[in-house]
Design brief:
The structure is a single chain. By secondary structure, the protein is of the alpha/beta class. It contains 12 helices and 9 strands. Strands 4-3-2-5-6-9-7 form a 7-stranded mixed β-sheet, sandwiched between helices. The structure holds S-adenosylmethionine (SAM). The site of S-adenosylmethionine has 23 residues, from β1, α3 and β3.
């Protein structure tokens, strides 16, 4: 792989954009990577080998796709913008291990794609994500039980910090708990705006989410636990008791919630931001018991 010849080389990216008179679509979050050090870091962090089938979300003009095609066995790239399809067919014409799909990733049955192309065996997901839909993409992959080894993605820096945050820190929230219920997050690198064309207005980071083989907690009712978590962070300044009693779906009043907290050895004035995933699982089981 001669860096001079890669699509991600800024000169080559500009040449492709000019050749096709490409107009960037803001609504699709199009910021193409032009830094090959960052691309190498992503490939290494995801530990891509020729044994792997990789799903890439949003290949753009193929800058990251080319790195994936060089290192993986097979790459499935899903791109929403139909203007990019003929460009990708040109920039990646030398590779025979690519399946290109012109679709909205949020509408695609990814389980079916994995069955078709990898016999249902775990895939790796790699992407420089469109930032406007980072959370629905990642939570969609986890919640629909797509067989995944790891997800290595470029996201907005603040979002990466929230995914990795521990209880009691300012970035800790419902997203931290949801991501950590399914995976072990690790921030691989911070990436400044000048690594992209055009430059985004925010800092970025690469984060790897390694899928946990077993869920770290096993609440009786997962849905109830996440309703509790969302309620707890809906009003960050309120105590957990007040958040719970303001959420009718949970079916617990103030006094009962104080009792539940007491039973769990927790203060009646505790806030959601102080609680771990294990404590949320315990409290949701107690709420369920109380309701039955
Ligand atoms: N991977 C390329 C790179 O690193 O240079 C492009 C990354 S760019 C940040 C995001 C890409 O996702 C764009 O190509 C955009 O058109 C595509 N995209 C946006 N929304 C999408 C969606 N819902 N489904 C599939 N692709 C989408």
């Amino acid at each position: 792989m001669n860096p001079e010849n890669m699509i991600a080389n800024p000169k080559n990216t500009i040449a492709v954009l000019k050749k096709y008179d490409f107009v960037f679509q803001k609504r699709f979050g199009q910021n193409f990577l032009i830094d090959q050090h960052v691309l190498n870091k992503i490939i290494n962090a995801a530990a891509i080998t020729k044994e792997d089938t990789v799903l890439e979300i949003g290949p753009g003009i193929g800058s990251m796709t080319q790195y994936l095609l060089e290192n993986a066995g097979h790459v499935i790239a899903v791109e929403i913008d139909k203007a990019l399809i003929p460009i990708l067919s040109d920039t990646l014409k030398d590779y025979d291990n690519l399946t290109l799909i012109n679709e909205d990733i949020l509408k695609l049955d990814i389980n079916r794609i994995v069955k078709e192309h990898n016999g249902g065996k775990p895939i790796k997901v790699v992407a420089n994500l469109p930032y406007y839909i980072t959370t629905p993409i990642i939570m969609g992959l986890f919640e629909s039980n797509v067989p995944i080894d790891n997800i290595t993605v470029m996201v907005q820096k603040e979002v990466a910090l929230r995914m990795q945050a521990a209880p009691g820190t300012k970035d800790y929230g419902a997203l931290s708990l949801a991501v950590q219920f399914y995976s072990d997050p690790y921030i691989v690198a911070n990436v400044p705006p000048n690594c992209f064309m055009p430059r985004p207005n925010v800092g970025s980071a690469v984060i790897r989410l390694s899928r946990l083989e077993e869920k770290p907690v096993k609440p009786v009712d997962e849905k109830l636990m996440f309703t509790l978590i969302r309620a707890a962070f809906n009003w960050r300044r309120k105590t957990l008791v007040n958040c719970v009693s303001s959420t009718p779906e949970l079916g617990v009043g103030k006094d009962d919630m104080v009792r539940i907290l007491e039973e769990a050895g927790l203060s009646a004035t505790i806030r959601g931001e102080a609680l771990s995933l294990a404590q949320y699982a315990l409290l949701s089981d107690k709420i369920l018991e109380h309701r039955q």
